[in-house]
Amino acid sequence: MSTRHLQRVIGQRGKNTLEQERENFEKTQAVAINKAINNQETPVKEKHLRNTILGTFTDHGGNLFWTITIRLPLQANPIVAWKFCQVLHKLLREGHRNVLKDSLRYKSNIIEIGKLWGHLKEGYGRLIAAYCTLVIQKMDFQKKYPEIPGNLLMDDEKYAHVCGSDVNNYFEISVDMLDYMDEILHLQEVVFGSLDKSRANSMTNSGQCRLAPLILCIQDSCQLYDYIVKSLFKLHSSLPQDTLTGHRDRFLSAYKRLKQFYYSSSNLQYFKNLVQVPGLPEEPPNFLIASDFSKHVKPVAVVPEPEPDLEPEPVEVVDLVDTAVPAPQETFRPSNFSLNGSPIVPEVDERDLLIERLTKEVRALRAELERVKAEDQRTIAALKEEISKLEKILSELRVSADKALKENNSLQKQLSEAKVLAGASVKLTEAEKQAKQNEEKFKKMKEVYNKLRDEHVTLLRTHGEVVKQQSSEKKLLEEKEQMIKELESQVHFLEKTRTSLEEQLKSTEEQKTSLESHLKQTLEEKETEHDDLTNQIATLQGEISQMMEEKQSMEQQLKSQLTNLQSELKESQESKRSLEEQLKQTIAELQQQLDQVTADYESTEKQLNSDIGNLHKKLIETSIREGKAFIQDALDQFENPSFTTVKCTAEFLLMRAEPVLASLHNLQKSVKIYGVDRTGLETFVECITGFAHHMGDCIIHGIATSHSTAQIESGEELGAVCRSTGESGLEVLTALQKGDNIKAEIDKAVHDVEELMRLADALVPKADDIKAEDMGDMVDNEMQSTTRAIEQAAARIEEMLQRTREDNTGIQLEVNARILDACTDLMKAVRILVEKSRDLQKEIIAQGRGTSSVTEFYKKNHRWTEGLLSAAKAVGWAATTLMESADKVMKGEGKLEELIVCSQEIAASTAQLVVSSRVKAQKGSKCMQKVSEASKEVSSATGKVVASVKTGSQIIEEQTLMDFSKLPLMQTKMQEMQLQVRVLELEKELEQERYKLGEIRKRHYQLAGDTEGYELHQGKR
């Protein structure tokens, strides 16, 4: 073909050829990327990854990659998003250097993909979120340190150049590398955590799809581990150890996780032929020892090169331009024109196709050349680094060998001198042995030296072969480059036509990009609106379904309650009708017989009252029996081994114990009301059942609280009080069943419940203002002051007894003398109990302290000491209060009931003292037996005081009792009404006072611990 004809053909079809070439390249890349990032749950094929990487070198960046991948369903298909992260990771490692710059523009897209899939807790959701975080971390790291290549391969000199001479740079880059390492380890933990450990996941497509990206993580982690170790050794040689504590802790944590990662990966069959997983040393490097750096070995992950594609057959390069002079007859060819004179479009020439194919080969060869250069540089850098390490080891071995030679020579000199000496045969033999050992050591070190030298020579030879191979490859590349230059000279004039096309193409692309961005923005807005509407619809549907379910359940509950109420109403109405009919019939019969037979009417009325009384009695007995069963069931939980695991807090026990006091007061009130008015049966039965349930509930939670507390003594004491509380509750119901007066039983139950609440309140954590070391002296002082208070109270009571015998006569003298005698006996019993308690306390200290001092014993058992202090203080205060109350009664200023309360308070205080002593007393202690006997005497004396007060009160009331036998009917009725009004007023006042008492007791329980500690602390001062 002539030159003019070639130019004419190029002028007609040059634009189409360049455009077709670009389209073919884009199609090839689109096919490779779509095959690499597909929705099949299989690992990405290496050839598609390689084609994508070569495409970045041809395109000089990643714009084409992002143009194609941005249209993929990354937010719709999890497998596509997972493979996208892997391909992007691979491009950042091995692609063109401009891939990072082009990818940073799409950083927000990667973050959004990670956030979107992070909401999916199953499948690939958490994996994609972790991988996106890792990719962002890698991009930030490469952006911050652009001198470090994407595959992190560089020699020590380049790394030192990156960090510079400032130690702060090492500090900062080590932190960034640790962050990078943390993201890699987090990703592998998420991947391994998502696999089913019951089967071989690495041999399934789904398992391989998840495990494939870990090869890149292994390659990155090897380099990061090496640089982190070198940086930390550098930092420890320049900075104090304390400053780098955080670095060491983070490195040790990453070391353990990385070692486990390598171990888990090396056991996978899938990785056997894909990567040679390195191993880490058994122990992490000790950065505090500088010489430990010589033991550091860089982990190298060897990835075998994939089998190369078959090279295309060499194409014979022919002359594209015919330089011969054309013949005159060929200047005009009729076949080039149609019959009407219009030119015919020439057919595609083979030379045009040849130009196109050669251009493609040129670009492919350029990409392959850059890839081969990069791989050679990596191999040479790795070999240089290995050679430098071996040279370091070799130099160290040379130094040690020289040292061993010097030692051997010195020992030989000593040996020769020892042989000269006649009397030093023993030293001679020892020197010979040592010389032999040194010779053996020298031989071993020589063998190691020879071995390392051979390895060094082998590596040098390998390096030489690599250099030779590289030189041969360079020759081939030079030949190819020469061919490329020749082709470029021929294609150069084609590029001139390309510029005009590119200008038109740029304008078209700008319009296209603007339209695409507008369309993309519109689609994103529509998608966000659609997602918002979908989420709102889903939430509304969920709320509607939940409300419908709640409505149905409430309707069912209301229907069941309504049916139950209707049935109960019918039953009550029927029973009411039957009772009304019976009553009406009875009333009619009685009205007919009223005038005639009054005696029959009275007998019938008595019979009716007895029947009603029997019914009431049966109902009350049934409720009492059920209540006793409920309380007994609660007490039986002491023997239930499975109940020991149940736990409860002291605060919750206090909440459950407060209703018990209210139920006791209500029960006592209802008993009085029912004794006056039988119509209060319903309230009476409700009070019985309520008391039983509250008491049982309190006991159950008390047992659970005794199991929960870490204070064994307090727990045992609380358990004992719970048992006594339950028994007092049973006594209340038993007395109620017998029809006796239940005031004493209720008072005892109230006291037990209050004691339980006090113990529970003591278990609530409080601030302690008293030092445990000072409690020993305070216990002795408090016991002595208690004894003095009891003796003073006894002496005062004796004085009051003498005074009342002088001032009073008759019944008043008898009542006062009986009460004061009982109080005197009580004081004597209390004094004996305190003395026995002091003896028991001394025995406990002598047996429990061992070789330690008394102060150390009190310090060790400070809680028991606090309880003993509290009990002793309470006994002294109660004795003083009893004496003051007795004085007021003798003077006529007080009430007899005050003596009952004070005596009961003394009994409770002494019981607390006995319990505090029993906690530490040994089993079978004679002193403890004496204390128990003295406690029984105190209880007996308390009962005598109560009996004396009640007897005296009864005698006085009998004197002041009015004679109602002579009152007429109207005055009797008026007196009855006045008394009923008075009774109601007194009951109201009683209820108010009980409420006040309850509130005061609550406040007392809340402040008792702190107030007592404060008073003791002030007393110590």
From TrEMBL:
GO molecular function: actin binding
SUPFAM superfamilies: ENTH/VHS domain, I/LWEQ domain
Domain I/LWEQ: 767-1008
Span of domain ENTH: 21-149
GO cellular component: cytoplasm
Location of this chain's protein in the cell: Cytoplasm
Keyword terms, alphabetized: Actin-binding, Coiled coil, Cytoplasm, Endocytosis
Family annotation (Pfam families): ANTH, I_LWEQ
Coiled coil: 348-607, 974-1003
Any single biological process term in GO: endocytosis
InterPro entries reported for this sequence: ANTH_dom, ENTH, ENTH_VHS, I/LWEQ_dom_sf, ILWEQ_dom, Sla2_fam
Family of the protein in this entry: Belongs to the SLA2 family.
PANTHER family, alphabetized: HUNTINGTIN INTERACTING PROTEIN 1 (PTHR10407)
Protein name (record): Huntingtin interacting protein 1
Species in which this protein is naturally found: Sinanodonta woodiana
